[in-house]
Amino acid sequence: GAVVSQHPSRVICKSGTSVKIECRSLDFQATTMFWYRQFPKQSLMLMATSNEGSKATYEQGVEKDKFLINHASLTLSTLTVTSAHPEDSSFYICSARDFMTGHNTDTQYFGPGTRLTVL
Amino acid sequence: QKEVEQDPGPLSVPEGAIVSLNCTYSNSAFQYFMWYRQYSRKGPELLMYTYSSGNKEDGRFTAQVDKSSKYISLFIRDSQPSDSATYLCAMKENYGQNFVFGPGTRLSVLP
User: Fold this and answer.
1) In chain B, whose CA is at the least distance from the CA of A91?
2) Per residue in B6-32, is it b (16+ CB within 10 Å) or e — as a string?
3) B49 touches chain A (CB under 8 A)
4) Do B43 and A93 touch (CB under 8 A)?
5) Chain A: nearest CA to B30, how far in angstroms?
6) B71-76 sheet: strands from edge to edge
7) B42–chain A Cβ distance below 8 A for any pair
8) Does the CA dihedral A104-B23-B98-A34 come out positive or negative?
9) Is the CB of residue B43 less than 8 Å from the CB of residue A93?
10) pLDDT tens per residue across span A79-111
């Protein structure tokens, strides 16, 4: 299957600092990438949908000024958590959409996740 | 009623058992159906992918889609302790970017 990488895998930062997480599709081009948040033993929570070259679409309740998403190329999307606070500590997972018109292919491949701890 | 429902488990089975994981859904427009496996503290891994109805087999895994009943299943044969994980179903319509995930079923395969 297709490979999506995510860096860093783990980050610890002080309250008030900003953290950037990178998501890359390694062997396919992804016009759409998704960012999720997951708390322990809970399901995925979609934060935003990012389309290459345009502004991200945020889910209700997600602060777009706090979670900055940039999708500058077909293989890279970044999530920046600005002015992080302890309540932002969570597991953040990105995914890349693999879509081929006329091939009945439309699925997502996930990155390995980033564990953010804000002290 | 949630758009996709899935028994949260946990489901515990002995090693070697056949496991059946299921999802029901309400949106008859769903055409793409996926099963993901997620180990603790890892991102979900795509296991099986089906377009429209029918069965698909890959090794010990079989995915079934019954659109008339709005019901999909994942069967795991000869289950192994390494299959212990949370299994997520996901679905999508033909158009748009909206993927809908089930809440996941936690499976434990006991040696």
Assistant:
1) B41
2) beeeeeebeeeeebebbbbbeeeebbb
3) yes
4) yes
5) 12
6) B4-6, B19-25, B71-76, B61-66, B54-58
7) yes
8) negative
9) yes
10) 999 999 999 999 999 999 988 766 678 899 999
